[in-house]
Amino acid sequence: MNSKIMSKNILITGANGALAQKLIEKYNNKSQYNITASTRNIQNLKTRLAGVNYINNTDLIETEILKNIDIVVNCAFPRTEDIKAMHEAMLFYKCLVLKSIDMGTKGFINISSQSVYGSYRETPSYEINDLNPEDIYALTKCLIEDIGWALAKDTPLKLTSIRLASLIGKEYPQRVINKMIKFGYQNKKIAVQNDKNIFGYLDIEDAAEGIYQFIKNSDIEKWKAIYNFGVKPDYSQNLAFIAKEIKKLFEKRNIKIELEIIKKEKADKLQTMNSKWFYEDSNWQPKITLEKSIEKIFFAER
Fold first, then answer.
1. Which fold has domain 3-167+203-230+272-286?
2. Sequential DSSP letters for 213-231
């Protein structure tokens, strides 16, 4: 039996998060998929699409809803260093994996993060590289990966962790791109270093499309335990490149901004990953260049 054809009923957790919402929108117009979305409190959902079954996390764990689910995509994790919130997320994840095993779910995708590799790398990270978490968030991501693999071992559930690159888009005001554009609109000087610190930002639209294509094209039975999912090498640049692209966008609209490029020889960070495995198994690669992502954020911040 072809496991790709059977994967029609999808559960997406963390339904109030930016990536989960993009995924829900991606699947909502596809008649071959039935979507269930869970969150801690459905009353607080930012958007709620017709045709999607929304449920509370408590009901998800305490009922047999998962009995009808083929694939779980777990996006539920707080981007915070609040210890209590992280502990709750880890407990939910543990219960979700156990319930998925009990209910006969076929595949489980845990959305993880490139932060598990740390930010100081000399070469792009491969899935086989040692981990180097530098903060509580990254450490918890490491622990969640280990919990999932330990629970799913010797069970029929195929569980994989997809380590995402840092996502960018209008949904991420904390990113340096969004901040620089905001500074420009506020007539504040943009000052960046021109060095060899390379950032591989992944557009949130590409992140959602990539996960969709992975589920559509990959064979659950052949999933690897880990996938890196980042951009192609030529989509990765330093902050000086990003600042210059932002300056061009302002100048095209006759808005002058002050840009200071500070030269720095030493390179400390290489936040890129080798994503060959993901590209091969999803039969897909990111399409949105860094320049295009910057332009999208630029117009969204106006």
1. Rossmann fold (3.40.50)
2. HHHHHS-GGG--SEEEE--
